[in-house]
Design brief:
Blueprint lengths: L1 H11 L8 H4 L7 E11 L5 E13 L4 E5 L2 E4 L7 E4 L2 E8 L5 E17 L3 E13 L4 E4 L3 E4 L3 E5 L1 E5 L4 E5 L7 E4 L8
Antiparallel strand pairs: 1-2, 2-3, 2-4, 3-6, 4-5, 5-7, 6-7, 7-8, 8-9, 8-10, 9-12, 10-11, 11-14, 12-13
Length: 191
């Protein structure tokens, strides 16, 4: 009996018309879809602030979020060499900065690698499962375990806050992960 009532109910429903077609579109459909995307964000003076490459992007206007697959962020810094930051997935969204002004926030996840090659200091590589990058403030942070490799050695920590413009890295620890550094033997001079 219940099956007949359900069948009768659905038979009485009007068929969708082209007038309400927009109501039928799935909510998860992106407003903008791109593949092989190259996006350049410029400073007011016309110089490159950052460049974003992504295998694919999906932009959703309702939630004001842009989701990315295989993003690579090339972030120029005023007094330091640029950073190349890559991951498997990520998103960009606007978020108010400490002064309340909307700024881009880039969240990267899954195998995040941040690499900077300095002409005199060599290469530094930061690795973690996720990072928040604030391009306008030249700032990055993670509360996930992080590994830092340099020509001097390797450091692990429970989290990191990085001032990318100055190169200052603040490491954190917790009860499960202390800050731990291994210095390579060639760093010690023979006396």
């Amino acid at each position: 009996m219940l099956g007949l009532a359900s069948l009768y109910y659905y038979a009485q429903q009007p068929a969708p018309t082209t007038d309400n077609f927009e109501d039928i579109i799935e909510r998860d459909e992106p407003d903008l879809l791109g593949e092989g995307v190259l996006y350049n964000q410029m400073h007011e003076d016309g110089s490159l602030h950052y460049r974003l490459n992504a295998d694919s992007i999906r932009q959703y206007n309702d939630s004001q979020i842009t989701r990315m697959t295989l993003p690579i962020l090339h972030l120029n810094t005023p007094n330091q060499p640029p950073w190349e930051i890559a991951s498997k997935h990520g998103y960009i969204r606007k978020h108010p900065n400490p002064q309340g002004v909307a700024e881009d926030v880039v969240y990267l996840r899954e195998d995040v690698q941040m690499v900077q090659i300095h002409p005199s200091k060599g290469q530094i590589t930061l690795r973690s499962e996720s990072f928040y990058i604030y391009p306008d403030r030249q700032f990055a942070q993670t509360n996930q375990n992080v590994m830092i490799d340099t020509s001097v050695g390797r450091t692990t920590a429970a989290g990191l806050v990085a001032d990318l413009a100055s190169g200052v890295l603040k490491l954190s620890s917790n009860k499960n992960q202390r800050v731990h550094t291994i210095v390579l033997p060639q760093q010690f001079k023979n006396s």
